[in-house]
TrEMBL record:
Signal peptide span: none
Alphabetical list of Gene3D superfamilies matching this protein: 3.10.450.50
Name of protein: SgcJ/EcaC family oxidoreductase
Originating species: Massilia agrisoli
Segments traversing the membrane: none
Alphabetical list of Pfam families matching this protein: DUF4440
Stretches of the chain forming a coiled coil according to its record: none
Chain ranges of the DUF4440 domain: 8-119
Amino acid sequence: MSQDEQEIRQLVETWLMATQAGDVEAVLALMSDDVMFMSAGQPPMTGREAFARGLNKVLAENVIESTSEIAEIVVSGDLAYCRTKLTVTITSKHGQLPILRNGDTLSILRKQADGKWRLTRDANMLAAAA
């Protein structure tokens, strides 16, 4: 496994742990300034600030736990993509039933000037679990 692939795997793991811990700043540090998130039926969400607003809103009332199974990582120069199977459980802090979503994601990462990989585009195809 290449050093770049190891770094991307660590980015994914750090993202999951920081989200569960409610550490929005740590999650934001893993994405580029021009990050874009795409999901079915929604307009693209662009930029760190938009993501932070959405994540803070969800975390105010919930805890998010996720598992990710990396199916594929391909690195080509300063660009890479990562395809995963993602499962997300959103548990209310107020006793409501948890929400379970799962599905595939495709993330594009770019190596920044500082040598670190950052998420730049993410296509999320999660749906309610059956």
